[in-house]
Each structure stands twice: as C-alpha cells, then as structure tokens.
Design a protein that fits this description.
461 residues; alpha/beta; Rossmann fold; six-stranded mixed sheet; 12 strands; 30% helix; disordered N terminus; SAM-dependent_MTases_sf
Length: 461
C-alpha cells in the first residue's frame, strides 16, 4: 500500500527493536525522537533507524527538560513496561516503583507536547488489573488531558500471522474518535510454515535432557489408546500414584499439626507413589513443588482440580501408564519436564508434528498453525520445531521469530539470547500498522486497503 500525504512526525518511547517505528515508517511517518534504556537496543536503534535514542525516560525530570529535549510531534507511541501488570509478574502495577510509574512519564510528555494522537501497548491483563481500576485510572488521566480514548485487544493471528499473542492497545485523539474504527479481526487459519526459513539453521543444539523429555512424552502419546480423549488439563506425572492430602488439608498443614511425625504413619504417598515413611525434611522433597511450600495451608480451587483430575486420570489408565513410568522414570527429570500441556486435541499423536515449548508449567505441545506467544525468553523457552516440520528438531531461529513480529527487515542483536529477549518484548509491527492507518486519518490518506501478506514490514529510515 502507498500513502499519499505529507509526512507526519512521531516519537517512539520504550522503543526496543522499533516495532512502532517500522509500522509508522511504512505509513511514511518520520521518527523524530526515541527512548530506549537498554544499551544494546539503544545502539541498534541507531543502526536500524538513524536515531540516537534517549536513554532513561526518568531523566526527563521536568516540564522544561521535556519541552527542550522532546521535539514537537504528531503521534506518540509507547509500549510502556508490561511486567508490573502481567500475570507472569507480581502485578504490582503503579506501585512498582522501578517500572510501574513509567506510564506517568508518558503522561507527562503527552501533557507537555500535546501530540494529536497516541498509541499505547501493554499486556491484556492491564485491562483487568486491580479489579479494572488500573484501566480506569489510565483512561481518566488521558481524558483529563483532552484526549478521546478507546482500548481494544488484538493478537497477530487475527491478522494472518501465525502467533497467538494477545495485547491491549490504547488509542487517543485530541480531535475525537468519531472517525476511528478498530481493524476487523480475521478468523482465517494460519500456518507456521509461512515464517519458517529452511536456509537458516539454529546455532544452538537442543540439550540432551530436553530431547529425552520430548521422547518421553512422545512415547506417552504413542502408548495412549486411540479411543481415549487426552486431558485438556495439564498432565502432572508427579501426581501419578500420589495420595497426600490436598482438599481439606495440605502437606504444610499436616507438618504444622504434627511437627514430629508429619505425614508418617498416615498411609499416604508422595510424588510418583513414593513412601512418606521418612523424616519431614525428606517428606518435603517427596511432595511435588506445587504442594510443598511452607505455610500453604489451603490450595486454590484450580490447583485442587488439577491434582484430582490427574489422580483420576492415572487410576483409569494405569494399564499403560505404569509401563511408561517404569521405562522412563520421569521422577529423574526436572520438575518442569514432568508435566505436559496437550494443546492439539484431535490431532495424530506424533509429537514431531507439533511446535513444542519447554515452560515452567511443562512441555507445551501446540498445533503447527501458530507459534506460542513470543515472550522475553530464557533460552529454554524458545519454541522447538518438531522433526516432521523441518526435517529435524530444532529451535526457531531469531530470524523466524522476527517474522512472527513482522520485523524481518531490521537488524537484530548479535546474540541469539538477546535477540529472543528483544523479540519477546517487541510490539507486532503489522498489528500497529493496521491500527495506525485507521487512527491517523488526519495525517495520512490511504490509497488502498491494508495488505495482509506476511512480507516483512521494512523500515527505510
């Protein structure tokens, strides 16, 4: 699509890899200021876009400093830190003094510079955080500045991109939003093959223990009877054979009530049916990590459900699970390897047909229609492609993950780990472009409809 209009000016706060910049550059916007505190990404932003980014936004400490250092602009974009609002974090929100208060710095820049439009991005949990009060506070503060504000959540898979990654987007306009409609969410199927690069090999081997865990769960799938519907709940192998209390009492409750004996002489079993006729110190080791925390006297309902469901599943399927346990001895694996999430109900049970991800919650098995959500990966969480997808099991490469974020045309950090982390924190450029070209009607004039192909958006700064 080509845009016929005078270029508009934008700023890119918490810029990261520059997903906002790539999207607005595609609409012939001109980046005039960026801020990124992480030194590697700050230097890379200069390489990709020719802008020497500001470092710490906290250094814009007064209205005078903001007015002097932030150029006038038409559009402000910001993927402000999401960790304070994420389910994966402590959810301290604005009380997180290191990151949660950075929204207020965005607010200060909007108040001082008064751009016509803004687009802000964060995790979807921000819409529910603190009982919805965080969302209400953000909208109220922005409306007090004179902006009309709306918020919606989108995932790249709703734009034909094979990644499920839900994110919340706040848009604002000083001229009202009567003209604005959110992009339509597509329901067409996606396919991960569209972003795979067969000419680029993963530079990091999959650890032997990880490969063995994949083989173990692959054998679990093969042994399962074809007529058996596999559980939709996470499979926790450590609960196979366990009988410790979890409904009306917990192991911690018993240890507090019987400080000398604990779970001894109660006829109970720990992980994988291990005996609990031992010292309390040893009992703690034989209770699963999700059930052995001191002072945890009442499990939440979801945990009780998972424990009960797994024990019932084991009892109903011992005829084939017991031989599997005897062969593989999952108790000798890391705790996270003892769990599996089967997200491919109804598919043929060949584990190498799927996209795999090792998480603290277990081995996640997903259909090859989409990638797991890119997150700020540790090296162990990078998606693994099954052998039937690429010829052999391998990690997705940074270049392939960049395609999932529609950032295939920019230079990435030299270190694979740094690249994965940056891509996990990045905003999806195609989603932003679809929102921006509808919002910025006063700045651009579209001469055709949005493209939906998977060609990477490319910055030309």
């Amino acid at each position: 699509m080509r845009i016929s209009s005078k270029a508009f000016r934008f700023v890119d706060l918490f810029a990261g890899l520059g997903g906002f910049h790539v999207a607005l550059d595609e609409l012939e916007g001109s980046g005039v200021f960026a801020a990124e505190w992480e030194p590697t990404l700050k230097a890379l932003y200069k390489v990709n876009f020719g802008i020497d980014a500001w470092g710490d936004l906290n250094d814009l400490g007064s209205d005078e400093i903001i007015a002097r250092n932030v150029p006038d602009h038409d559009v402000l974009t910001a993927g402000f830190p999401c960790q304070p609002f994420s389910k994966a974090g402590d959810q301290l929100g604005f009380k997180d003094t290191s990151q949660g208060n950075l929204f207020f710095k965005v607010h200060d820049i909007l108040r001082v510079k008064r751009p016509r439009y803004f687009i802000l991005e964060n995790v979807p949990n921000i819409l529910k955080h603190d009982g919805g009060r965080t969302k209400t506070t953000i909208i109220r503060m922005l409306e007090k500045l004179g902006y009309s504000v709306d918020v919606e959540h989108f995932s790249p898979h709703e734009f034909g991109i094979p990644q499920v990654r839900d994110r919340a987007y706040f848009v604002g306009s000083l001229e009202g939003l009567d003209h604005f409609e959110w992009p339509a969410k597509r329901k067409d199927p996606t396919e991960i093959h569209s972003v795979l690069r067969h000419d680029v090999l993963s530079r990091r081997a999959i650890p032997e223990q990880t490969l063995r865990a994949i083989d173990m769960w692959g054998d679990f799938l093969r042994r399962s009877p074809a007529a058996l519907k596999l559980p939709s709940f996470p499979i926790w192998a450590m609960e196979f054979g366990a009988t410790y209390p979890y409904e009306d009492e917990t192991p911690s409750g018993v240890w507090a009530r019987r400080p000398g004996w604990g779970l001894r002489q109660m006829g109970l079993k720990g992980s994988f049916g291990q005996s609990l006729e031992c010292t309390i110190e040893e009992q703690v080791k034989r209770i699963p990590s999700h059930a052995n925390r001191a002072g945890d006297f009442c499990f939440p309902q979801w945990k009780r459900n998972f424990i009960r469901q797994n024990r019932e599943f084991y009892q109903a399927n011992r005829s084939w699970i017991d031989p599997w346990l005897a062969q593989w001895k999952p108790q000798d694996f890391y705790s996270s390897f003892q769990k599996m999430e089967w997200n491919a109900q109804g598919e043929a049970r060949d584990i190498d047909n799927f996209v795999l991800q090792m998480r603290a919650s277990g081995l996640r098995v997903k259909r090859p229609t989409t990638s797991p959500s890119l997150i700020a990966f540790t090296e162990t969480q990078v998606p693994i492609l099954g052998a039937n997808l690429t010829g052999k099991r391998r990690y997705m490469t940074p270049a392939e993950c960049a395609e999932l974020q529609c950032l295939g045309g920019i230079q990435l950090p030299a270190s694979d780990l740094d690249a994965y982390k940056a891509l996990g924190n990045a905003v999806n450029a195609r989603v932003v472009k679809a929102i921006a070209e509808r919002l910025l009607h006063g700045l651009i004039r579209s001469t055709s409809t949005i493209t939906h192909d998977l060609e990477p958006l490319r910055a030309t700064a």
